Hints:
The chain has about 300 residues and is of the alpha+beta class. Among the domains are: about 10-80, no CATH class; about 85-120; about 145-240, Chitinase A, domain 3 (Roll), CATH 3.10.50.40. It contains twelve helices and six strands. The strands form two sheets. The chain has a four-stranded antiparallel β-sheet. Strands 1-2 form a two-stranded antiparallel sheet. Strand 1 (about 25-30) and strand 2 form a beta hairpin. Helix 6 packs across helix 12 (about 245-270). The longest helix has about 35 residues, at about 85-120. The chain starts with 7 loop residues before the first helix and ends in a 35-residue tail after the last helix. Residues about 1-20 and about 290-300 have low confidence and may be disordered.
Amino acid sequence: MKKNISAGLLILVALAACGKNGKFVAKIGSDTITLKVLQERIQDAPPAYRNYLTTSAGKKQFLDLMVRERVVLESAKAAKYDKKDNYKKAMSEFKKEQVRRSRDYAENLLMELYIRDLHDSKKIGATEEEVQRYYDDHRDDFVHPKEVKARHILVATRAEAEKALERLKNGENFAKVAREVSTDPVSAAHGGEIGPFTKGQLVPEFENAVFALKTGQISPITETQFGYHIIMKVAEKTLSARPIEDALPDIRKTLEKSKFDAWFENAKKKQGVKVNYEILNQVSPPLLPLSMQQDDKPAARPVKK
Length: 305
């Protein structure tokens, strides 16, 4: 393989100072590359390059690139670039970011381990008896499952929803109103269209409203955690029956989410949680890349979490 390995390959691995132990491979000023360090760097190379690094030519090119970067590094040290303000500022920001990342990792690991144990316990885990009972209680949903397509308009306040509903009652086209006022940027661009979906995929309040409608019918204002919706059922069809063996993963997921939600609300009460949503108006939105500032916005669709 004659294609050169990009110099960026070695930027992906840390240029840590070599120890004095190990067989000598290269010496650059006061720095030494040992066989041990070379082997470690090769093991850290991206998977796409590893086959090439099994060849003599690949190993030589890799070592040459390491030497090249060490020469640049030694030159930068000799020129005292580590004393420059922009270097110190960048390192200071890097260290702060590492501290933040370490804290986030530690907290996420704690939550992951705790939630895993919750799922394995009776607090959240769904038993076989509970799964069977749920299937029996919702047998029609599995024996004659329905798939629905819908349109919806999502707004932040009930007053805005009432205005949108009044426009619809006055005969305005649903898709047109959705494009103009809905805050769900994904569906609004398509006239509020979402789906197809079946029961258990969206939040209960939305599902209860849409499945109760006849095709072409528009719902009253429906409130969910995302805001206020006006929903129109576009189409509905009956799917093939689902035996319990096929439905088991979805049932288990539904039951465990319900149990977790109940556990979460209880934990909030025990911990005396208070939230001031009014202060959100004072929070500055994140800066978006230029490529996202026109159309791409995070969706607020009623997907079940």
